[in-house]
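Recall that a protein's primary structure is simply its ordered list of amino acids. Everything else, from secondary elements to tertiary packing, is in principle encoded there. The following example makes that idea concrete.
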Amino acid sequence: MPKVDLTDRAREVIDTLREKHGPLMFHQSGGCCDGSSPMCFPEGELFIDDNDILLGEVHGCPFYMSKFQYEYWKHTHLTLDVTEGRGASFSAEIPLGLRFVIDSRLLTEADN
């Protein structure tokens, strides 16, 4: 089972952003700007290093999180979604009047 999934609405927004920016990447922010928000960037715009881990892909986009933050989230399943409103981040969807959000739920034995 993937660690990160997405809603149909998030998939549509990714398609729109991909048309404008090309390949994209996500990083689950650990408190900067919009709190703990998923942030979307043109691929390669955010420096990823040994302090980040790849959780998987969402709609063909790599999705990263810092190792430190992952220690708190490792027992959860994340779903990328979109909501109306402008966040306070540098994420690519902000000019659309939207922002990506994460819904999380604890993993259970049935998920394994």
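The mean pLDDT is 90. The first helix runs from residue 8 to 21.
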